[in-house]
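Hi V.,

You were right to ask for the full record rather than a summary. Here it is.
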Amino acid sequence: MVTARTMANLVEREGEAIAACVKNKAKTILKSHEFTEAGVPTGETAAYRRLADESVLSKEIVSQAGEELNQVLGKERQIDVEALQGTCENPASVKALISVDDVLCKKQKESGRKKGSPSPKKKERVKNTVAHIQSGKGETYMLTTATIAQMMIVLLAFLLSNGLMILPGNLVFFTDGAQDLLLAIQKVFAFLPFKIILDWYHLDKKCQQRLSMAVKGKQIRNKILEELLAWLWIGKVDMAIAYLRGLDPNDVKDTEQIEKLIGYFSRNVCFIPCYALRHQLGLRVSSNPVEKANDLLVSNRQKHHGMSWSASGSSSLATLTSLRRNEEHMNWLRYHDIRFTFSQQKQAKPAA
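Predicted structure:
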C-alpha cells in the first residue's frame, strides 16, 4: 500500500523533473533563436515585428458593428465609432491569444513553528502562474510555472518553437491588470507588436469586491454596480470614474475603497477597450480560457476546504496536471521528454 507521504514525494519528484525538462528545453530554444536565457534578443528581430496587411478589422466592418451597437444603446451611451477605428484586431491576423493569471492556494503551515506562537497577520498563500495559449487555428496549450518571471521565459520559448512568433500580426494578452504581470509582459515582449486587454471577468469581479466593501448594503451595491459596469462595458472609463466621484455620501461607508477602485481604473485605462464593440464583432473580451485552465490545473484539486500546500507540492501537482491536459503524459512516461507543442487532437474554435 502506498502511503500519502510516499505519493506526495512521488508527485513532487516527477513534477520537479518535468519543470526541469521544460526549463532546459526553453533554454535550448532561446539559444537556437538568438535569445539570452533572460529572453533578450541578440540577433535580428525584424521578422517578429511584421504586421499583416489587414492586422486590424476594416473600417467598413467596424463601422457597421458600431452602428448596430448604437441602435440598441441609450442616447447617453452612444459610442464614437470613428475614434475606435484601428483598435480591433483582425482575428485572422494575430500570432496568438494568450491569457495569463496567478492562482493562489492556502500555504501549509511550517512544521517548525513553535506551539503558541502568533499566526501570521495575513494568510500565507502559495502561487502558481498559469497561461492559456490559443493559436489562430484554435490549437491550445496550457503552461504553469511557479512565478511570473519564469512564465514569460517559458512562454517566449513556446511561441518561438511553434513558429507563432514569425507570423505577421500582434500577440494579444488578456490579464487581470496586476502590475507585476503587465511589467513582465512589457519587459520580455518589447521587441514585437503586442496588445494587452484588461479582461472583463476580472474587471467585473474587481468592481464587485471593492463596492461590497465601499457601500452600504447589497441593494445599493447592485444598483451602483449595474450603472458602473454599463459605462465600463462601452469603454468610457472617464464616465465610470465621474460616476464614482458623484456617489451619494450617505450610500458610502468606506471612501478609501472607492479611491482604490478609481486608482485601478486609472492604472489600466490603456488596457480597457470598448468591450461592447469587441463583443459585437465576435472578438474575445475575457480571459475565461485561463480561468478554466486555472480550474483544471490548480483549483479543482488544490482549493478545497481544509487543504493547504507547500510551494513545491502545489507547483508539482499543477505541472503534472498540465502534462495530462496537454496530452504530453505518454511521451513523458515513454521517453521522459515532452513535445512542447500543440496537441493534434484538441482544438478550440479559431481565434476570435
